[in-house]
Amino acid sequence: MPRLIALVLLLAGLVLSAPAAARDLENTLYLDLPDGRVVIEMRPDLAPRHVARIKELARQGFYDGVPFHRVIEGFMAQTGDPTGTGEGGSGRTLPLEASEAKHERGVVSMARGRSPNSADSQFFIMYARRPGLDRLYTVWGRVVEGMEHVDALKKGEPATDGRVEAPDRIVRLRVAADVETGRTGTVR
Fold it and tell me: Signal peptide: which range, if any (predicted)?
């Protein structure tokens, strides 16, 4: 009987650690924030063009040092604009990739302008469920570890002069496969 219990405990330990080991590293992002690492599972099945573009920008180092220019408690944290005003981007827009995915806590989705086909480099991480966003914004990922670090971001929005008082910034955003294999990606 002790051997059976030991075997069950060993198998339980393997099952509990399996999701991290089984993670698709090419479709996983490491978002390093001031308080720690956030792991984002990307969803190319929902938004293949957006996932490809996010990975391309991450590999260029585009997001490194970019501020969270809009962080609204109970709603979301938005980043991806190097100017910090909410008006900037990478200069290349993508068409909407609508899906049935729900905008709920931990979901990562693209920000956009008035046009559904105006998403660029800005994205947001949801703090809570917002059904009004469903099918109107492209969901491309989900936080699977480290949501407490997103919760810890300084709250605020751009002031009339376009600046947030000392916003938190992305330290680094990398494709997990590059980090785990030692590849550094393309330098811009």
Answer: 1-22
Three-class SS of 108-158: EEECCCCCCCCECCCEEEECCCCHHHCCCCCEEEEEEECHHHHHCCCCECC
Helix (H, G, I), strand (E, B) or coil at 38: strand
Quote the DSSP letter at residue 37: E
Question: What's the pTM value of the predicted model, to 2 decimals?
Answer: 0.84
Q: Give the integer Cα–Cα distance in Å for 13 and 102.
A: 31
Residues 78-92 pLDDT 10s: 999 999 889 999 999
Contact of 138 with 110, CB cutoff 8 Å: yes
User: Running DSSP on this structure, what letter comes out for residue 53?
Assistant: H
Tell me the CA distances in angstroms from 82 to 52, 78, 89, 114, 182, one per residue in order: 19, 12, 7, 20, 26
| Matching residue, tokens 């919760």 | 151
